[in-house]
Design a protein that fits this description.
By secondary structure, the protein is mainly beta. The chain has two domains: 25-51 and 371-471, Jelly Rolls (Sandwich); 55-366, Tachylectin-2, Chain A (5 Propeller), CATH 2.115.10.20. 4% of the residues lie in helices and 44% in strands. The protein contains three helices and 30 strands. The chain has helices at 3-12, 301-304, 350-353, and strands at 35-36, 43-47, 50-53, 57-58, 70-78, 81-87, 94-99, 106-110, 122-126, 137-143, 147-153, 159-161, 178-182, 187-197, 204-213, 224-229, 242-252, 255-264, 284-292, 322-325, 330-332, 335-343, 358-366, 371-375, 381-385, 388-389, 394-412, 429-437, 453-461, 463-471. The strands form six sheets. Strands 1, 2, 3, 24, 25, 26, 27, 28, 29 and 30 form a ten-stranded antiparallel sheet that branches. Strands 4, 20, 21, 22 and 23 form a five-stranded antiparallel sheet that branches. It has a four-stranded antiparallel sheet with strand order 5-6-7-8, with no helix packed on it. The longest helix has 10 residues, at 3-12. It is globular and about 70 Å long. The termini are far apart.
Length: 472
Protein backbone atom coordinates (compact mmCIF):
# COMPACT_ATOMS: atom_id res chain seq x y z
CA UNK A 1 0.00 0.00 0.00
CA UNK A 2 1.39 3.43 -0.96
CA UNK A 3 2.38 5.71 1.89
CA UNK A 4 -0.18 8.34 0.83
CA UNK A 5 -2.99 5.79 1.04
CA UNK A 6 -1.71 4.63 4.42
CA UNK A 7 -1.67 8.21 5.69
CA UNK A 8 -5.29 8.74 4.62
CA UNK A 9 -6.22 5.62 6.55
CA UNK A 10 -4.34 6.87 9.59
CA UNK A 11 -6.02 10.27 9.44
CA UNK A 12 -9.42 8.60 9.40
CA UNK A 13 -8.52 6.92 12.66
CA UNK A 14 -8.03 10.25 14.43
CA UNK A 15 -11.83 10.63 14.72
CA UNK A 16 -13.02 10.12 18.29
CA UNK A 17 -15.04 6.92 18.72
CA UNK A 18 -18.74 7.31 19.47
CA UNK A 19 -19.46 7.30 23.16
CA UNK A 20 -15.87 8.05 24.16
CA UNK A 21 -15.22 9.91 27.40
CA UNK A 22 -14.07 12.96 25.44
CA UNK A 23 -17.54 13.27 23.84
CA UNK A 24 -19.35 13.14 27.17
CA UNK A 25 -19.81 15.77 29.86
CA UNK A 26 -16.45 15.81 31.67
CA UNK A 27 -18.10 16.98 34.88
CA UNK A 28 -19.42 13.45 35.35
CA UNK A 29 -15.84 12.40 36.02
CA UNK A 30 -14.90 15.04 38.60
CA UNK A 31 -16.54 13.75 41.77
CA UNK A 32 -13.76 13.20 44.30
CA UNK A 33 -11.13 12.19 41.75
CA UNK A 34 -7.83 14.04 41.44
CA UNK A 35 -8.03 16.27 38.37
CA UNK A 36 -4.69 16.59 36.59
CA UNK A 37 -4.41 19.77 34.52
CA UNK A 38 -2.59 18.11 31.63
CA UNK A 39 -5.32 19.34 29.25
CA UNK A 40 -8.54 21.38 29.19
CA UNK A 41 -10.80 18.48 30.12
CA UNK A 42 -12.22 20.22 33.22
CA UNK A 43 -11.38 23.81 32.25
CA UNK A 44 -13.75 26.28 30.61
CA UNK A 45 -11.66 29.48 30.70
CA UNK A 46 -8.04 30.46 31.19
CA UNK A 47 -6.12 33.71 30.90
CA UNK A 48 -2.41 34.53 31.16
CA UNK A 49 -1.38 30.99 32.00
CA UNK A 50 0.58 28.45 30.00
CA UNK A 51 1.22 24.74 30.38
CA UNK A 52 4.64 23.71 31.61
CA UNK A 53 6.17 20.30 32.13
CA UNK A 54 7.10 19.42 35.68
CA UNK A 55 10.76 19.35 36.64
CA UNK A 56 12.26 15.86 36.72
CA UNK A 57 15.30 15.35 38.96
CA UNK A 58 17.88 12.62 38.39
CA UNK A 59 18.85 10.55 41.41
CA UNK A 60 22.27 9.07 42.20
CA UNK A 61 23.92 12.28 40.99
CA UNK A 62 22.89 11.46 37.45
CA UNK A 63 24.90 8.26 37.39
CA UNK A 64 23.54 4.80 36.48
CA UNK A 65 21.96 2.79 39.26
CA UNK A 66 22.31 -0.51 37.40
CA UNK A 67 25.17 -1.33 35.05
CA UNK A 68 24.56 -5.05 34.52
CA UNK A 69 21.59 -4.64 32.22
CA UNK A 70 19.37 -2.31 30.23
CA UNK A 71 15.77 -1.93 29.09
CA UNK A 72 13.35 -2.71 27.34
CA UNK A 73 11.94 -3.59 30.75
CA UNK A 74 9.73 -2.70 33.68
CA UNK A 75 10.02 -1.47 37.25
CA UNK A 76 7.02 -1.76 39.59
CA UNK A 77 6.42 -1.24 43.30
CA UNK A 78 4.69 -4.36 44.54
CA UNK A 79 4.42 -6.21 47.85
CA UNK A 80 6.48 -3.55 49.64
CA UNK A 81 9.47 -3.44 47.30
CA UNK A 82 10.65 -2.28 43.90
CA UNK A 83 10.75 -5.05 41.30
CA UNK A 84 12.77 -4.76 38.11
CA UNK A 85 12.70 -6.87 34.94
CA UNK A 86 15.81 -5.98 32.96
CA UNK A 87 17.40 -7.10 29.73
CA UNK A 88 20.52 -9.22 30.06
CA UNK A 89 23.38 -7.50 28.23
CA UNK A 90 25.38 -10.54 27.16
CA UNK A 91 22.76 -13.25 26.66
CA UNK A 92 19.24 -13.80 25.50
CA UNK A 93 16.47 -13.09 27.97
CA UNK A 94 15.74 -11.05 31.06
CA UNK A 95 16.81 -10.88 34.68
CA UNK A 96 14.78 -10.05 37.76
CA UNK A 97 15.99 -7.79 40.58
CA UNK A 98 14.55 -6.21 43.72
CA UNK A 99 15.19 -3.10 45.83
CA UNK A 100 13.89 -1.60 49.05
CA UNK A 101 14.93 1.99 48.28
CA UNK A 102 14.44 2.17 44.51
CA UNK A 103 18.13 2.80 43.83
CA UNK A 104 20.12 -0.20 45.02
CA UNK A 105 18.89 -3.34 43.24
CA UNK A 106 19.86 -6.90 44.03
CA UNK A 107 19.85 -9.42 41.21
CA UNK A 108 17.62 -12.35 42.11
CA UNK A 109 17.49 -14.64 39.08
CA UNK A 110 16.81 -14.90 35.36
CA UNK A 111 13.17 -15.18 34.42
CA UNK A 112 12.12 -18.54 33.07
CA UNK A 113 9.64 -19.99 30.61
CA UNK A 114 9.69 -17.40 27.79
CA UNK A 115 11.32 -18.09 24.43
CA UNK A 116 12.68 -14.66 23.57
CA UNK A 117 13.69 -13.66 20.06
CA UNK A 118 14.97 -10.67 18.15
CA UNK A 119 15.73 -7.67 20.37
CA UNK A 120 14.71 -9.45 23.59
CA UNK A 121 12.03 -7.08 24.82
CA UNK A 122 9.68 -7.48 27.77
CA UNK A 123 7.12 -5.39 29.61
CA UNK A 124 5.34 -6.57 32.73
CA UNK A 125 1.92 -5.49 34.01
CA UNK A 126 0.63 -6.43 37.45
CA UNK A 127 -3.08 -7.13 37.15
CA UNK A 128 -4.12 -6.01 40.63
CA UNK A 129 -7.71 -7.25 40.34
CA UNK A 130 -6.83 -10.67 38.97
CA UNK A 131 -8.49 -13.34 41.09
CA UNK A 132 -6.49 -16.22 39.66
CA UNK A 133 -3.04 -15.85 41.16
CA UNK A 134 -1.40 -17.62 38.22
CA UNK A 135 -2.40 -14.70 35.98
CA UNK A 136 -1.52 -11.84 38.32
CA UNK A 137 1.58 -10.91 36.32
CA UNK A 138 1.14 -10.39 32.59
CA UNK A 139 3.94 -9.90 30.08
CA UNK A 140 4.28 -8.98 26.44
CA UNK A 141 7.54 -9.75 24.71
CA UNK A 142 9.39 -10.08 21.41
CA UNK A 143 8.42 -13.50 20.05
CA UNK A 144 9.96 -15.27 17.03
CA UNK A 145 9.24 -13.62 13.69
CA UNK A 146 9.41 -10.03 15.04
CA UNK A 147 5.91 -10.56 16.44
CA UNK A 148 4.41 -10.15 19.91
CA UNK A 149 4.03 -12.91 22.46
CA UNK A 150 2.15 -12.77 25.77
CA UNK A 151 2.57 -14.77 28.97
CA UNK A 152 1.34 -14.98 32.56
CA UNK A 153 2.97 -15.70 35.91
CA UNK A 154 2.18 -16.08 39.61
CA UNK A 155 5.49 -14.64 40.85
CA UNK A 156 6.93 -12.62 37.96
CA UNK A 157 9.78 -15.11 37.58
CA UNK A 158 8.27 -18.34 36.27
CA UNK A 159 6.22 -17.65 33.16
CA UNK A 160 3.76 -19.61 31.04
CA UNK A 161 3.21 -18.27 27.51
CA UNK A 162 -0.25 -18.05 26.01
CA UNK A 163 -0.87 -19.66 22.61
CA UNK A 164 1.67 -22.41 23.37
CA UNK A 165 4.50 -19.89 23.06
CA UNK A 166 3.63 -18.92 19.49
CA UNK A 167 3.21 -15.27 18.46
CA UNK A 168 -0.20 -13.66 18.90
CA UNK A 169 0.35 -10.94 16.26
CA UNK A 170 2.14 -10.53 12.95
CA UNK A 171 5.32 -8.47 12.53
CA UNK A 172 6.72 -5.94 13.31
CA UNK A 173 6.82 -5.98 17.08
CA UNK A 174 10.47 -5.82 18.01
CA UNK A 175 10.50 -2.89 20.46
CA UNK A 176 8.11 -2.54 23.39
CA UNK A 177 5.09 -4.80 23.39
CA UNK A 178 2.67 -4.12 26.23
CA UNK A 179 -0.51 -5.79 27.46
CA UNK A 180 -2.76 -3.83 29.83
CA UNK A 181 -6.24 -4.19 31.29
CA UNK A 182 -8.73 -1.41 30.51
CA UNK A 183 -11.40 -1.44 33.26
CA UNK A 184 -13.55 1.21 31.56
CA UNK A 185 -14.13 -0.92 28.46
CA UNK A 186 -13.62 -4.32 30.15
CA UNK A 187 -11.01 -5.41 27.63
CA UNK A 188 -7.29 -6.01 27.37
CA UNK A 189 -5.22 -3.71 25.17
CA UNK A 190 -2.03 -4.62 23.37
CA UNK A 191 0.41 -2.01 22.09
CA UNK A 192 3.22 -2.96 19.71
CA UNK A 193 5.52 -1.39 17.17
CA UNK A 194 4.61 -1.70 13.54
CA UNK A 195 6.03 -0.25 10.34
CA UNK A 196 5.07 1.39 7.06
CA UNK A 197 6.87 1.61 3.75
CA UNK A 198 8.66 4.72 2.54
CA UNK A 199 7.46 6.44 -0.64
CA UNK A 200 10.12 4.69 -2.70
CA UNK A 201 9.51 1.35 -1.07
CA UNK A 202 13.14 1.08 -0.02
CA UNK A 203 12.80 1.27 3.75
CA UNK A 204 10.49 1.40 6.71
CA UNK A 205 8.78 4.05 8.77
CA UNK A 206 8.25 3.11 12.38
CA UNK A 207 4.77 3.32 13.85
CA UNK A 208 2.65 2.01 16.72
CA UNK A 209 -0.51 -0.05 16.72
CA UNK A 210 -3.09 -0.70 19.43
CA UNK A 211 -5.39 -3.71 19.61
CA UNK A 212 -8.09 -5.07 21.91
CA UNK A 213 -9.03 -8.55 23.11
CA UNK A 214 -11.61 -9.06 25.90
CA UNK A 215 -10.31 -12.54 26.77
CA UNK A 216 -6.75 -13.39 25.66
CA UNK A 217 -6.72 -16.28 28.10
CA UNK A 218 -9.37 -18.06 26.04
CA UNK A 219 -8.51 -16.55 22.63
CA UNK A 220 -4.89 -15.38 22.71
CA UNK A 221 -4.74 -14.45 19.01
CA UNK A 222 -8.11 -12.67 18.82
CA UNK A 223 -6.64 -9.17 18.77
CA UNK A 224 -8.71 -6.57 16.89
CA UNK A 225 -6.85 -3.61 15.43
CA UNK A 226 -7.97 -0.30 16.88
CA UNK A 227 -5.46 2.03 15.34
CA UNK A 228 -2.15 2.31 13.49
CA UNK A 229 -0.37 5.62 13.61
CA UNK A 230 2.86 7.40 12.76
CA UNK A 231 4.09 10.95 13.19
CA UNK A 232 2.60 12.80 10.24
CA UNK A 233 1.41 16.20 11.46
CA UNK A 234 4.08 17.86 9.33
CA UNK A 235 3.41 15.82 6.21
CA UNK A 236 4.36 12.46 4.72
CA UNK A 237 8.10 13.23 4.80
CA UNK A 238 8.06 13.77 8.55
CA UNK A 239 9.65 10.35 8.99
CA UNK A 240 12.94 12.01 8.00
CA UNK A 241 12.62 14.27 11.06
CA UNK A 242 11.16 11.92 13.69
CA UNK A 243 9.72 8.45 14.12
CA UNK A 244 7.98 6.77 17.01
CA UNK A 245 10.42 4.10 18.13
CA UNK A 246 8.47 2.65 21.06
CA UNK A 247 5.40 3.49 23.14
CA UNK A 248 3.74 2.15 26.26
CA UNK A 249 0.53 3.30 27.97
CA UNK A 250 0.62 4.21 31.68
CA UNK A 251 -2.56 5.39 33.44
CA UNK A 252 -2.72 7.76 36.40
CA UNK A 253 -5.87 9.46 37.75
CA UNK A 254 -7.85 8.47 34.63
CA UNK A 255 -5.30 10.10 32.31
CA UNK A 256 -3.42 7.85 29.91
CA UNK A 257 0.22 8.80 29.46
CA UNK A 258 2.13 7.68 26.40
CA UNK A 259 5.70 6.96 27.48
CA UNK A 260 7.41 7.46 24.14
CA UNK A 261 10.84 6.88 22.72
CA UNK A 262 11.07 9.28 19.77
CA UNK A 263 13.80 8.68 17.22
CA UNK A 264 14.91 12.15 16.07
CA UNK A 265 16.66 12.77 12.75
CA UNK A 266 16.87 8.99 12.23
CA UNK A 267 19.93 7.70 10.43
CA UNK A 268 21.57 11.14 10.25
CA UNK A 269 25.09 10.61 11.60
CA UNK A 270 26.45 13.76 9.96
CA UNK A 271 27.75 15.04 13.31
CA UNK A 272 30.69 12.71 12.91
CA UNK A 273 32.05 9.37 14.05
CA UNK A 274 31.52 7.82 17.46
CA UNK A 275 32.21 10.19 20.33
CA UNK A 276 31.43 9.00 23.85
CA UNK A 277 31.86 12.50 25.32
CA UNK A 278 30.12 14.90 22.93
CA UNK A 279 26.33 15.18 23.22
CA UNK A 280 24.74 14.76 19.80
CA UNK A 281 21.50 16.23 18.45
CA UNK A 282 20.78 13.97 15.47
CA UNK A 283 20.13 10.25 15.25
CA UNK A 284 19.23 10.45 18.95
CA UNK A 285 16.33 9.15 21.04
CA UNK A 286 14.35 11.34 23.42
CA UNK A 287 11.77 10.50 26.08
CA UNK A 288 8.48 12.36 25.58
CA UNK A 289 5.05 12.01 27.10
CA UNK A 290 1.68 12.29 25.38
CA UNK A 291 -1.73 12.27 27.04
CA UNK A 292 -5.21 11.08 26.16
CA UNK A 293 -8.68 10.81 27.68
CA UNK A 294 -10.35 8.75 24.97
CA UNK A 295 -9.47 5.30 23.67
CA UNK A 296 -7.11 6.10 20.84
CA UNK A 297 -5.91 9.66 20.32
CA UNK A 298 -2.76 11.00 21.90
CA UNK A 299 -2.04 14.69 22.41
CA UNK A 300 1.50 14.97 21.04
CA UNK A 301 2.08 18.68 21.62
CA UNK A 302 5.16 18.13 23.80
CA UNK A 303 6.81 16.25 20.94
CA UNK A 304 6.19 19.03 18.45
CA UNK A 305 7.28 21.65 20.98
CA UNK A 306 10.59 19.78 21.33
CA UNK A 307 10.21 19.40 25.10
CA UNK A 308 11.22 15.93 26.34
CA UNK A 309 9.80 14.76 29.66
CA UNK A 310 13.26 13.65 30.79
CA UNK A 311 15.92 15.48 28.77
CA UNK A 312 19.09 13.61 27.78
CA UNK A 313 22.16 14.15 29.91
CA UNK A 314 25.05 16.56 29.22
CA UNK A 315 28.42 15.91 27.59
CA UNK A 316 30.13 12.89 29.07
CA UNK A 317 27.03 11.43 30.71
CA UNK A 318 25.87 7.84 30.24
CA UNK A 319 22.52 9.05 28.83
CA UNK A 320 23.67 11.88 26.56
CA UNK A 321 22.42 10.45 23.26
CA UNK A 322 19.57 8.02 23.91
CA UNK A 323 16.91 7.55 26.56
CA UNK A 324 14.48 4.63 26.53
CA UNK A 325 11.85 4.74 29.31
CA UNK A 326 10.74 1.80 31.38
CA UNK A 327 7.32 0.52 30.35
CA UNK A 328 5.62 2.24 33.31
CA UNK A 329 6.18 4.83 36.03
CA UNK A 330 6.30 3.93 39.72
CA UNK A 331 4.34 6.04 42.22
CA UNK A 332 5.66 5.72 45.78
CA UNK A 333 6.01 8.01 48.80
CA UNK A 334 4.68 11.16 47.12
CA UNK A 335 7.02 10.79 44.16
CA UNK A 336 6.94 9.32 40.69
CA UNK A 337 9.98 7.16 40.00
CA UNK A 338 11.03 7.37 36.36
CA UNK A 339 13.28 4.52 35.33
CA UNK A 340 15.02 4.51 31.99
CA UNK A 341 17.86 3.09 29.94
CA UNK A 342 20.44 5.61 28.78
CA UNK A 343 23.11 5.29 26.10
CA UNK A 344 26.21 7.38 25.40
CA UNK A 345 26.10 7.13 21.61
CA UNK A 346 23.55 7.45 18.84
CA UNK A 347 21.33 4.76 17.34
CA UNK A 348 23.42 5.00 14.23
CA UNK A 349 25.11 2.68 11.85
CA UNK A 350 27.38 -0.11 13.16
CA UNK A 351 30.54 1.98 13.04
CA UNK A 352 28.82 4.55 15.28
CA UNK A 353 26.87 2.32 17.63
CA UNK A 354 29.34 -0.46 18.47
CA UNK A 355 31.19 1.52 21.19
CA UNK A 356 27.88 2.42 22.80
CA UNK A 357 27.14 1.49 26.40
CA UNK A 358 23.62 1.26 27.85
CA UNK A 359 22.86 1.40 31.57
CA UNK A 360 19.80 2.01 33.74
CA UNK A 361 19.12 5.27 35.58
CA UNK A 362 16.30 6.76 37.63
CA UNK A 363 14.81 10.20 38.15
CA UNK A 364 11.88 11.42 40.22
CA UNK A 365 9.05 13.92 39.96
CA UNK A 366 6.93 15.25 42.86
CA UNK A 367 3.51 13.63 43.09
CA UNK A 368 1.16 14.57 40.22
CA UNK A 369 3.41 17.34 38.89
CA UNK A 370 3.57 16.10 35.31
CA UNK A 371 2.08 19.24 33.79
CA UNK A 372 0.99 22.49 35.43
CA UNK A 373 -0.76 25.70 34.45
CA UNK A 374 1.63 28.50 35.30
CA UNK A 375 1.30 32.26 35.66
CA UNK A 376 4.66 34.00 35.54
CA UNK A 377 5.86 37.57 35.52
CA UNK A 378 3.70 40.50 36.54
CA UNK A 379 0.53 39.32 34.81
CA UNK A 380 -2.10 37.64 36.95
CA UNK A 381 -3.36 34.31 35.63
CA UNK A 382 -6.84 32.93 35.95
CA UNK A 383 -8.38 29.48 35.51
CA UNK A 384 -12.12 28.69 35.65
CA UNK A 385 -13.36 25.10 35.72
CA UNK A 386 -16.40 23.66 34.03
CA UNK A 387 -19.48 23.42 36.18
CA UNK A 388 -19.78 20.27 38.27
CA UNK A 389 -21.88 18.98 41.20
CA UNK A 390 -20.05 19.39 44.49
CA UNK A 391 -19.75 15.99 46.16
CA UNK A 392 -17.47 16.86 49.09
CA UNK A 393 -16.77 19.46 51.73
CA UNK A 394 -13.07 20.27 51.24
CA UNK A 395 -10.80 21.25 48.38
CA UNK A 396 -7.21 20.13 47.96
CA UNK A 397 -4.66 21.67 45.58
CA UNK A 398 -1.27 20.63 44.29
CA UNK A 399 0.32 24.05 43.86
CA UNK A 400 3.76 25.66 43.76
CA UNK A 401 3.99 29.36 44.56
CA UNK A 402 7.16 29.81 46.65
CA UNK A 403 7.29 33.51 45.78
CA UNK A 404 3.72 34.05 44.69
CA UNK A 405 0.10 33.38 45.62
CA UNK A 406 -3.10 31.59 44.68
CA UNK A 407 -6.67 32.68 45.38
CA UNK A 408 -9.60 30.25 45.09
CA UNK A 409 -13.18 31.40 44.59
CA UNK A 410 -16.38 29.38 44.19
CA UNK A 411 -18.85 30.41 41.51
CA UNK A 412 -22.33 29.21 40.66
CA UNK A 413 -23.06 27.19 37.53
CA UNK A 414 -23.45 30.40 35.49
CA UNK A 415 -20.03 31.64 36.61
CA UNK A 416 -21.32 34.23 39.07
CA UNK A 417 -19.54 34.69 42.43
CA UNK A 418 -21.16 33.00 45.41
CA UNK A 419 -21.47 35.07 48.60
CA UNK A 420 -19.01 33.94 51.23
CA UNK A 421 -16.76 32.22 48.68
CA UNK A 422 -15.45 35.08 46.56
CA UNK A 423 -14.12 38.59 46.75
CA UNK A 424 -13.09 39.62 50.26
CA UNK A 425 -14.37 36.33 51.66
CA UNK A 426 -11.56 34.48 49.90
CA UNK A 427 -8.18 34.13 51.52
CA UNK A 428 -5.17 34.22 49.19
CA UNK A 429 -2.51 31.66 50.03
CA UNK A 430 1.01 33.03 49.71
CA UNK A 431 4.51 31.60 49.44
CA UNK A 432 3.55 27.95 49.42
CA UNK A 433 4.77 24.82 47.70
CA UNK A 434 2.44 22.00 48.72
CA UNK A 435 1.14 18.74 47.32
CA UNK A 436 -2.01 18.90 49.47
CA UNK A 437 -2.90 22.49 50.19
CA UNK A 438 -6.46 23.05 51.46
CA UNK A 439 -7.73 26.61 50.88
CA UNK A 440 -10.26 28.11 53.29
CA UNK A 441 -12.77 30.91 53.26
CA UNK A 442 -13.33 33.45 56.03
CA UNK A 443 -16.94 32.68 56.88
CA UNK A 444 -18.15 29.49 55.23
CA UNK A 445 -17.07 25.98 54.31
CA UNK A 446 -17.76 23.98 51.19
CA UNK A 447 -20.08 21.72 53.20
CA UNK A 448 -22.78 24.39 52.85
CA UNK A 449 -22.72 23.95 49.05
CA UNK A 450 -23.00 20.15 49.05
CA UNK A 451 -24.85 18.93 45.95
CA UNK A 452 -24.92 22.28 44.18
CA UNK A 453 -23.55 22.88 40.68
CA UNK A 454 -20.46 25.06 41.03
CA UNK A 455 -17.35 26.25 39.27
CA UNK A 456 -13.94 27.00 40.75
CA UNK A 457 -11.94 30.09 39.84
CA UNK A 458 -8.21 30.10 40.55
CA UNK A 459 -6.28 33.37 40.45
CA UNK A 460 -2.52 32.86 40.22
CA UNK A 461 0.38 35.21 40.73
CA UNK A 462 3.82 33.69 40.11
CA UNK A 463 2.26 30.29 40.75
CA UNK A 464 1.74 26.92 39.09
CA UNK A 465 -1.35 24.76 39.67
CA UNK A 466 -0.94 21.06 38.89
CA UNK A 467 -4.16 19.48 40.13
CA UNK A 468 -7.19 19.86 42.36
CA UNK A 469 -9.42 17.40 44.17
CA UNK A 470 -12.69 17.63 46.08
CA UNK A 471 -12.55 15.66 49.32
CA UNK A 472 -15.35 14.23 51.41
Amino acid sequence: MALKTRLLLLLSLWILPSGSKAEQDPTRYIGTRTQLLVDDFVISEQQNVRRELGTVTRLNQGKPIFTDGKFYGTVAFDQGRFKMWWRNPEKQGFGYAESTDGIHFKKITDIQGINFAGDYTLSVTIHQRELLHAHRYLAAYDAPGMAAGIAHSADGIHWTPYNDGKPVTHRAADTYNQITWDPHDATFRLFTRTDFGTPGGDGEVRGVRSMTNPNPRANPTDWKLVRNWIFDREGEKEFLRRQIYALTDWTHHDVHFALMTVYEWPGDTSEGPADLVKRHEKDVMNYYIGTRRDKNNWNLDWVYAGKPFLPRGPDGSFDKDMILPASSIVTHKDRHWIYYSGANERHGTPDVSFPRESFIGVATLPLDRFVGLAATGEETGQIVTRRFPLQGNRLQLNVAAPEGSILVEVLNAAGEPLPGFSGRSSRPSRQLDELRHQPRWKEKTLASLQGQMIRLRFTLQEATLYSFQVLR
